[in-house]
Design brief:
With 194 residues, the chain is an all-alpha fold. Helix content is 71%, strand content 0%. The chain has a domain at 3-135: Hypothetical protein af1432 (Orthogonal Bundle). Bound molecules: fe (ii) ion (FE2) (2 copies).
Length: 194
């Protein structure tokens, strides 16, 4: 069985059907964006299928796994352990499926918080996660529209704006990397740089 078939089968047994649909949407969207923006479609699809592999882990499991994998934690990671699903997921992909491609692994790691100066695969997975077809229109349409009219950098700013607004509205902790990602890509989109 090829790797993606095996991953799909495993995910269909371990995750809720809505999560599976989201992941499938991200994988197909990432593949499509990779074709459009000149990244490797196979790597984008693989990163998409794997990106939320640890999304349904409980907080304690994420913290335990972060310790086992010796991840450096920001205080906000400890206050909001669900944020760790991205970095823990990359470690699980390495361990369970022997993924060694650093581009695939780093795209998985950055898909939730982003970071300044992401490579093309990291940008694609970050945006695909925000706009795949099962995302609600109210959340995703402004990002989809920015992507269509202005490209990836502006779409990343819009996705960060949505996330920051939602986090503040819900009274959750804001991770410094989300702010750094927003600031970096906002600066990238000022006139003359797009
Ligand atoms: Fe995620
Ligand atoms: Fe996701």
């Amino acid at each position: 069985m090829d790797l993606i078939k095996q991953i799909k089968l495993d995910l269909s047994h371990s995750l809720s059907s809505s999560r599976f649909k989201h992941i499938e949407g991200v994988a197909l969207m990432a593949k499509e964006l990779a074709t459009t923006y000149g990244a490797c479609p196979e790597k984008a699809e693989l990163a998409g299928w794997l990106h939320d592999i640890a999304k349904e882990y409980k907080a304690k499991q994420l913290l335990d796994e972060a310790e086992r994998f010796k991840l450096n934690l920001d205080p906000v990671d400890e206050l909001s352990p669900h944020l760790l699903h991205a970095r823990v997921g990359a470690q699980i992909a390495k361990e369970k499926y022997s993924i060694i491609d650093t581009e695939v692994l780093s795209a998985m790691e950055q898909h939730t918080l982003g970071k300044p100066s992401m490579n093309i695969l990291e940008q694609i997975l970050f945006v695909a996660d925000a706009i795949e077809p099962t995302r609600k229109a109210e959340w995703a349409d402004p990002i989809r529209n920015k992507l269509k009219s202005n490209g990836l950098n502006v779409a990343i700013v819009e996705a960060c704006k949505n996330t920051i607004h939602e986090i503040i509205t819900k009274g959750h902790f804001l991770h410094p990397l989300t702010v750094e990602t927003y600031n970096f890509y906002l600066n990238e989109t000022i006139e003359g740089k797009i």
